Amino acid sequence: MKNFYLYIVFSCFYLNVMAQKDTLTFSSLMFIKPVEKKSMSWKEIVNSGDFKGVKVERKKKIEDTVSQLQTHWFGFDFGFANYIDETKYAENKTLTNPAIGFPLSKFKMSLINSKSTNVNIWVLQQKYNFKKPGAYLKYSFGLEMFNFRYEYPINYRENQPMYIYLSDGDYEKNKLLTTYISAPIQLGYDYKLKNNKTVGFSGGLILGYLYQATNKQISRSLGKEKYNAEFSLRDMRMASIFEIRIDKLKFFGTASLTNMLDKMPTNQSLYPYSFGLRFSKF
Question: Other C-beta atoms within 10 Å of 24: how many?
């Protein structure tokens, strides 16, 4: 009976058989020549009807290891930060005639670009893969940290007539550190190339809540000083986010949709943005 079935199977693809192959596949089945028949072609074996010793094995099904919902712990981003200053300095009297300190200007509010950074730590990341191959929804939870390094002696202070003002001090280092508890959500699509590499893109929104703000300054006369307060910064942050993936290399970028400053008497308008590398599983 076994010989009969083997004869039928081999007859189905008889014309497509390569004469010297030791193993043939048909659907999920593999047919393997015995050692003593390796010198014979499959054509000769089929014609003789002698299938003694021919092994029939079922190929192991390769399972799709990508589950619909994936979870990853601890990813992080590293990039550079800056902000778009949309303050109308010429029209704002509180900037040209401050209660304390020197007048502010767009020029004086500039940052040292190479030393202003954005570091994000994503404690939890989840990716929901849709039924359509490549399409997914990704969301995360963690901390966004911005380090704004100022070129000039900009002061952030609490409970003073002006929360931001230009001092006459000479700082060796002057920076504003802001930390947000944030949750980005992104829609994306990954495309698999013929060489098995993956390229993809995603975009979405970030919602964040201000956790801490610090103005850290170092000067020769006063040494190291730290001022921790809200400085009338906006409590809630909303930003757009995009990500570009080239196989294992990932780039990210964010752009704030809300003013970083909320309750400022000086009516400053600063919109942070950042870009850099993302280090995460997906």
Answer: 18
pLDDT in tens, 202-231: 999 999 999 999 999 999 888 999 999 988
CA distances (Å), 30 to each of 14, 122, 227, 241, in order?
Answer: 15, 47, 73, 50
Strands (E), the chain: 23-26, 29-32, 55-58, 69-85, 117-129, 135-149, 154-156, 164-166, 171-192, 198-219, 223-228, 236-246, 249-256, 270-279
The arrangement of strands across the sheet holding 23-26 comes to 23-26, 29-32, 55-58
28 in helix, strand or coil? coil
DSSP designation for 235: S
Exposed e or buried b for every residue in 231-260, given b needs 16+ CB within 10 A?
bbbbeebebebbbbbeeeebbbbbbbeebb
3-state secondary structure (DSSP) of residue 30: strand
Closest by CA to 224, choosing from 166, 174, 177, is: 174
73 burial (CB, 10 Å; 0-12 / 13-18 / 19+) is: exposed
Instruction: Give the CA-trace dihedral at 242, 246, 251, 256, to 10 degrees.
Output: -10
Rounded to an integer, what distance in angstroms lies between the CA atom of residue 119 and that of residue 276? Answer: 9
Q: What torsion do the CA atoms of 44, 50, 53, 59 make, to the nearest 10 degrees?
A: 70
Q: Fill in the DSSP letter of residue 111.
A: B
Q: How far does Cα 53 stand from its chain's mean position?
A: 55
Confidence of residue 19 (pLDDT cuts 50, 70, 90): very low
